[in-house]
Write a structure and sequence with these properties.
Layout lengths: L1 H16 L12 H9 L3 E6 L2 E10 L9 E2 L8 E8 L8 H15 L4 E7 L3 H9 L3 E8 L2 E9 L4
Parallel strand pairs: 4-5
Antiparallel strand pairs: 1-2, 2-4, 3-6, 5-7, 6-7
């Protein structure tokens, strides 16, 4: 938990330094991370035994997505992920792509072929990652009063 929170704090500062409003309202916070872990939703990326990345991964668990202003690509079961963050020391090494690949593996291992996510309109780094990873813009959702861009990727059934 302390290592994860340290990584998220670095990401919060990066968002601010990038001029983004995302994560500047007291979210995420240690209570959110603790809840992720307690519910089995928190996942880490490691380099040997060092935690270098974090995300929360859930199945069919994002009530705000039902209120999308727009249209999802599918209405099937979905994986949703939140709070993607990497350690400062590991940026620029393609590790966000690695996290996205692990999320896809998680979805497929649960026979789920839809991944949904959202980000702030001004989180340019994540918007670029969504584009590179093949996510399609589907519309807008709202969290804590803020508008977010919503994306989905439909995975190929084998």
């Amino acid at each position: 938990m302390p290592e994860i929170w340290a990584i998220l704090q670095q990401a919060i500062i990066r968002r601010k330094n990038d001029g983004s409003e995302q994560w500047q309202d007291g979210y995420p916070n240690p209570d959110v991370v603790k809840k992720d872990i307690d519910l089995g939703h928190g996942y880490v990326l490691t380099d040997n035994n060092t935690i270098i990345g974090y995300t929360a991964i859930l199945i069919n668990d994002e009530p705000e997505y039902a209120k999308i202003i727009g249209k999802w690509l599918s209405d099937d079961d979905f994986v949703v992920f939140h709070r993607v963050a990497l350690s400062e020391n590991y940026l620029g090494k393609g590790l966000a792509k690695k996290i996205f690949e692990y999320i896809e593996d998680f979805a497929l291992s649960n026979n789920i072929y839809s991944i949904k996510a959202d980000t702030n309109f001004d989180n340019l780094a994540m918007l670029k990652i969504f584009e590179k990873a093949g996510y399609k813009y589907c519309g807008k959702v709202y969290f804590r009063g803020g508008e977010r861009k919503a994306f989905e990727k439909v995975l190929t059934r084998s």
